[in-house]
């Protein structure tokens, strides 16, 4: 593979909260490796893309739980339990 070639991966985030996605990219320190434009998330590695997607899902769960007054408890690293208060 030529050294001047950059391979990117992308995901459709058209329905995503653009402000929240950009905040996550900043918080994770991925400003130079991940971009979000016009509903598409573009990254230079699958790991970065997966990290942003996972963090986005986690923050949406927290946001909805807070809005609905649900108790949120983290089980394992990627599992959550929701219950009514």
Task: Describe the protein.
The chain is α+β, with helices and mostly antiparallel strands. The protein has one domain. It is built from two helices and five strands. A three-stranded antiparallel beta sheet has the order 1-3-2. The protein has a two-stranded antiparallel ribbon with strand order 4-5.
Helical amount: 25-40%
**Sheet/helix structural class:** alpha+beta
pLDDT averaged over residues: 85
Element order, helices and strands?
EHEEHEE
Number of strands: 5
Terminal residue distance: 56 Å
Q: Low-confidence stretches at least 5 residues in length (pLDDT < 50)?
A: none
Main beta sheet strand tally, sense and closure: 3 strands, antiparallel
Q: Tell me the strand percentage band.
A: 25-35%
- C-alpha Rg (nearest Å): 15 Å
**Overall tally of domains:** 1
Shape: elongated
**Strand arrangement across the biggest beta sheet:** 1-3-2
Please count the helical segments. 2
């Amino acid at each position: 593979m030529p050294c001047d070639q950059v391979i990117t991966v992308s995901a459709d985030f058209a329905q995503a909260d653009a402000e929240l996605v950009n905040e996550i990219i900043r918080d994770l320190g991925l400003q130079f490796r991940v971009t979000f434009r016009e509903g598409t998330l573009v990254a230079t590695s699958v790991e970065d893309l997966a990290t942003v997607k996972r963090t986005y899902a986690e923050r949406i769960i927290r946001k909805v739980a807070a809005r609905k007054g649900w108790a949120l408890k983290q089980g394992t690293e990627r599992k959550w339990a929701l219950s009514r208060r």
